[in-house]
Design a protein that fits this description.
IF-2B-related; 14 helices; 3-stranded antiparallel β-sheet; 426 residues; alpha/beta
């Protein structure tokens, strides 16, 4: 009788040990978030070019043979920087190999490399039109589904365009729109019907989100221009140019101050076009902004993207112009289409940016006698930095003029969140 309780205790211990593991697993399941994010929804990490292991993998998948630039700035080593002109000969040699890439996509890549196509809207339209031609010539291989195979084709085209030049944020939104439309194609559609549907979607995106959106922005912005105004702009934005031309057609009397900067000197082309239209203009460089700002009544600027925290991602120098205008009490009006809005939050222009050709800064248009940086690459202690974009804080922006109306920078997350279903690219 005395031994039986011991056996009972041993059996109880065994039962307790068997019950414990399920309890631990229940705790783990309780700690998981209720809405688990799928792998498709998680964006892929950006390529860090200071990671040698990732760079080796990227070179194996690369279509182009690119040589890394010398004397790179250490703070921006995570961004791609290649010797200018090294990609072009290799790309031209593969132009007549249609098995690797569609000719229209090759043509756009060449134009990106040479700089013939610049500007957010122009680059996005050229990419979508190239995809439209590729879809028109596409035929589904045997034993494959159109939606899956075409999505893989578009992904290969996108990776090729990224090798030619990093994508803008607006181009990324357009690619998401196109892939979303491909995945939502009904299986009952034939190949010709599916291709016609995708082509009409691309045409509708270009028309509604870029062309018509620009006209709506012009109609809103013209109401902010009065007679005897002095309007300042920086660089060359297509939407801002349309605003000035439409205001001039309405008979409003104003003067435009075009601020420009090296090395692109985009403002010179804008100046010629505005003067040809009969608009009174003043041309100056960015180092004289504080000198001429006391005459300015309003500042109109373009944007490459507007981020979720209200900051504006635009061509380098925009933040300096907005800061000077803010210090002088001049309102800054940012003109941007809604398809360029992005849910990303960015506080600086270091983590995410694009590096241009450093030789463009060393070149001086007057002649070789003034080019003191001619052989700068031979000096190991000299590093030239040519940034493409910068970040303008929301404190320096008075108003955003979009195709959804005129709104403050604090309303950007509302647009991104509430109109997510209406925006066809998400």
């Amino acid at each position: 009788m005395s031994k039986q309780p011991k056996a009972g205790k041993a059996s109880l211990k065994k039962d307790v040990t068997q019950v414990k593991p399920p309890v631990a697993s229940d705790k783990k399941t309780d700690e998981r978030p209720p809405d688990k994010v799928s792998k498709k929804d998680v964006p892929q990490p950006r390529m860090q070019f200071d990671d040698a292991h990732r760079v080796i993998k990227a070179k194996k998948r690369s279509v182009l043979n690119k040589s890394e630039a010398q004397n790179r700035v250490e703070l921006f080593r995570h961004l791609p920087q290649y010797a200018h002109g090294t990609q072009l000969p290799d790309l031209e040699s593969k132009f007549f190999q249609p098995d690797l890439m569609h000719p229209s996509v090759y043509k756009v890549g060449l134009q990106y490399l040479s700089g013939d196509i610049s500007g957010g809207n122009a680059r996005c339209i050229a990419m979508l039109l190239a995809f439209r031609e590729a879809i028109n010539d596409y035929s589904t291989p045997a034993e494959k589904i159109l939606s899956r195979d075409l999505t893989a084709k578009i992904s290969s085209y996108v990776s090729f365009l990224i090798e030619c030049r990093p994508l803008s944020i607006s181009m990324g939104n357009a690619i998401r729109f196109l892939k979303n439309r491909i995945t939502k194609l009904p299986l009952a559609l034939s190949e010709s019907e599916a291709k016609a549907s995708l082509q009409s979607d691309i045409d509708r995106f270009i028309n509604e989100k870029i062309i018509v959106a620009g006209k709506v922005i012009v109609s809103h912005a013209v109401t902010k221009i009065r007679d005897d105004d002095v309007l300042l702009t920086y660089g060359s934005a297509s939407v801002v140019e349309m605003i000035f031309e439409h205001a001039h057609e309405l008979g409003k009397k104003f003067r435009v101050v075009v601020v420009d900067s090296r090395p692109n000197l985009e403002g010179q082309g804008l100046l010629r076009r505005l003067v040809a239209k009969g608009i009174s203009c003043t041309y100056t460089h960015i180092n004289a902004v504080s000198y001429i700002m006391h005459e300015v009544t309003r500042v109109f600027l373009g944007a490459s993207s507007v981020l979720s925290n209200g900051t504006v991602y635009s061509r380098v120098g925009t933040s300096s112009v907005a800061m000077v205008a803010h210090s002088f009490g001049v309102p800054v009006l940012m003109c941007c289409e809604a398809y360029k809005f992005h849910e990303r939050v960015q506080l600086d222009s270091i983590c995410f940016n694009e590096l241009g050709d450093p030789d463009a800064i060393s070149r001086v248009p007057r002649g070789e006698s003034f080019s003191h940086l001619k052989n700068w690459a031979d000096n190991e202690n000299l590093h030239i930095l040519n940034l493409k974009y910068d970040i303008t804080p929301s404190d320096y922006v008075s108003m955003l003029i979009t195709d959804y109306g005129m709104l403050p920078p604090t309303s950007v997350p509302v647009i991104v969140r509430e109109y997510r279903r209406e925006h066809v690219w998400i």
